[in-house]
Amino acid sequence: MQEAFIGNWTQQSHASPAHLNSLRGLNRLFLDLAGNGLVAAGPASQVAPLSPAQRAAAADCPYALFDLRFDDHAYWRGRLETIGKWRVADEARSCEDTVDFVRLALFYAWHLASSAALTAHLLLGMRADTVEAFKRLDVDALSSLAHTETANLAARWSGCGAYWTALVGAAAHPDPAHLRRVQLSGFQLAAAAQLPSEPREV
Fold it and tell me: For residue 21, what are the domain limits?
């Protein structure tokens, strides 16, 4: 049942090989940043002991391992309304490697939103309203966003330490089939994140 669900999702994701290759490259860059302590402390920092080849294997996921609050439309609605109103003093102070990564990730998100909205939802977890907001962005706005959004760069599903422990553990051992099973389990986390929250009792 689980295998059928995951297989069906990957077949219908409509993600082109080019989109997936770019995403894997971004995942690899993110894991390098995390392993070098350039991302806020979180479960992805567990990748530090992995070799370059092991990090590359872990990064070979059909979804983003990084997050920039793409599932938080309220945040992005407010943020995009204030583009151009931030002063230099308001910008996050981050190393250039982190700023460069965030710039690439935002450009990738903008490109997906502009050309493949469903893919942006599946690969990045972007809400439909956020996809529409990114579609309306001018590409030259992305550079200024990169400086302020470094503070929001984090591991995706940072609250699920078990996933990250399993991913790092599988990448550290020469068992590609086990690693792939762990990587595919990320689809369950992505699906769970899209479920509506249970109504609170009054």
Answer: 2-193
Question: Within a domain: residue 201?
Answer: no
Number of domains present in the structure of the chain: 1
Q: What is the dihedral of CA 86, 92, 93, 99, to 10 degrees?
A: -100
Q: Is residue 35 part of a domain?
A: yes
0.90 cut: is pTM over it?
no
Along the chain (202 residues), what's the average pLDDT of each consecutive run of 10 residues?
A: 41 74 97 93 92 97 96 93 62 78 97 93 94 92 90 95 97 96 93 64 38
Q: Confirm whether 199 is domain-assigned.
A: no
Query: Do the beta carbons of residue 157 and residue 163 sit within 8 Å?
Result: yes
Please say whether the beta carbons of 123 and 19 come within 8 A: yes
